[in-house]
What does this fold into?
Amino acid sequence: MPYFDAGGVVYAIEDIIASEEVLQEAITALLSGCRCSIVDSPFVASVEARGFVVDRVVGVGSIVCEPGCIEPRRGYRFTAPVWGQGRVISRGQRCLVCGDSPSLSQLSALGIDTLRVGYHEFFDRVLRGGERGVLVLGTGLDPLEVVEDEGVCGVLRTSNPLHPAGALGKPRLQACVERVYRLEGPRARLLHNILYVNDKPVIARLEGMGNALVVMFDEEGSSRYPRIAATLGMLYECGAPSEHM
It folds into this structure.
């Protein structure tokens, strides 16, 4: 449960959804070495917005960065310290990765200690070794277990609104993904779906001794909202609990 100091910068999930530039500013802060957290439970905070001090709900998927690190153009500032709930996007935190996508490639640039492993080793280390990670399904993994499915367009919805990857599961948001992948066999039962387009799961969570995000679509053939969800989910799964920002 991070303690956020007064002056901390909030990139609200509503603004991240509304404008790609907001998430990019948060990523720029991370690239410059700012210590930031990603929220996994809503809380109310006093913030300065356009010269006014207001109480605002800081929702799941919002990104909060430490004071004095970046001059925000699109974020808000806390006017008083506040307790929140989430994970610190921690430089040096080890995170297993398997598969390939633009968001996955970005993790190491953010200072996260990514360790690339093979498909079967990934499952073993997460389920039995208690490690965290991100798996991106696609061609080139196990052809007997990873199967390409038809693409889909429709409404985003979530079965886990308290996971940042599920924060975009709102009825008013529409999305398209050209290529979707699914698991066949016993390992499919280990996935807990987070985000859907219509009834087709596109992001899930692997849960065992450890946890991992499973991205089940090709980002390069996807519209913006699923890509944002994948980025937020990766930052969260590779994050670490902390008491103070």
In short: The CA atoms of residues 95 and 238 lie 5 Å apart. The longest strand covers residues 200-207. The chain has a mean pLDDT of 92. The chain has two domains: 3-89, 94-237.
